[in-house]
Write a structure and sequence with these properties.
Strand content: 35-45%
Number of strands: 9
Number of helices: 3
Largest sheet: 9 strands, mixed
Radius of gyration: 16 Å
Shape: globular
Structural class: alpha+beta
Helix content: 25-40%
Length: about 180
Amino acid sequence: MKPTRFAVLLSAMLPAALAAAPFPGSDLRPLLQFHGSFLRGAGPLPPVFLDRDDLFVTRDGSFIYSQAAGNTQTGPYTTDLAQGVAAPQLFATLTQALLQAGIGALGGKCHVSFPSPIWIPGNGYEITWYGRQQRWISLTMSDQNDVPDCTPDEVALLEALVSFQSQVLADPRTTHYRSH
């Protein structure tokens, strides 16, 4: 996802979230965005399930998350919006993973294999990291075979981001706003 498109999404959902509860954090400068887009089939096909999510993390560990998910044949689509601040140890682990991967030198596209359930081509993640001043990089990791394989450092970074996302969303201090 391009940073400008995510900014539109963020600006659309942030006012409602802020009206409900004050946004935490002392340094809201951007650190990274983590976008995932998947079509999954539980088999046999159909049904096909769409899952699109975005995690925006600031330099102090504050985050805002959005997800749209649902059955592409019958619906309905659901929404999960969340905000909070990562626990200090969890945020330190993420920061270490970014440093270890050499995030500032990454960028481009690479191939990664995804686990089951049955994946339908076109799935992937995009990581956008914001450095100092105007510096930023974007790394796209997809199931497309026409790009080089992701390096072990890139895969380790992806695993760290997936773990970070699942842990902050499961944290009882995280505020969720969900459709029914």
